[in-house]
Please model this.
Amino acid sequence: MMSEKKGFIVSHAYIIASPDSEQREKKALEIACSFLCESKERRPCMECSACRNVLSGYHPDVIDISRKSDDKGNKKREIQVEQIRQMVSDAYVRPSQADKKVYIIRDAGTMNPTAQNAALKILEEPPEHAVFILCTDSAESLLATVRSRCTVVRLSGEKAGNESELAEEYISLAAKKDEVKLCVFFGKHEALDNERASAFVSDVRFCLNGFISTRKKYYGFTREDAFRLLALCDRAEEYLRLNVGSKHVMGLFCVLTV
Ligand SMILES: [Zn+2]
Model:
């Protein structure tokens, strides 16, 4: 059950795979925001009260599932099967505030096979209002049956790529509006394959959303710049999904940045 929405594939279950726990958590929150955002224009806006509550961990319809601590305060090795069973029964209860209820399972790879199997049925046939986001260092740490029911989002790092550095470099050049250096940059990286180009675009989006939500100063960027480049990311992702060659997509990126 998937449908396409501007910018990303809407699904009811995601696997966010990256060895960087901070990065995958940010991505999970970004996806949660896109379901719960109240903006009429750009979703996720990262600014409305719903988005802000998601980002600060206070949204009542975002439910966090993570390893519990033992008596000594150390994290247990596994997410217990009871936690998953509890999540499953809770998922049939309607959300309290929004239209959707988003479950974020942290370190999903620490679910043992019994726990993963307990989640299978609901991942396959979830209640209409439920969304599941499984965060893990590697998608392969989950059973193939679980993977097949989820949209896998591989963040850079999982494949030892350097896309996130490229994204940073790109944004710094875009901020300086340095046409010549941008052309050199894209000339150097035009040979990225489609998968790495997708990772690059996804990292650019990630940096831009971070900029918008934290309101930090970022290479002298304005918010308008950030929104404009996000729209460009939407377009690039659309093309990559339609299997337009990455060389053309990167060319488009280069031309439309300045
Ligand atoms: Zn919002």
Notes: The first strand starts at residue 3 and ends at 5. The radius of gyration is 19 Å. Strands lie at 3-5, 8-10, 13-17, 62-65, 101-105, 130-136, 151-154.
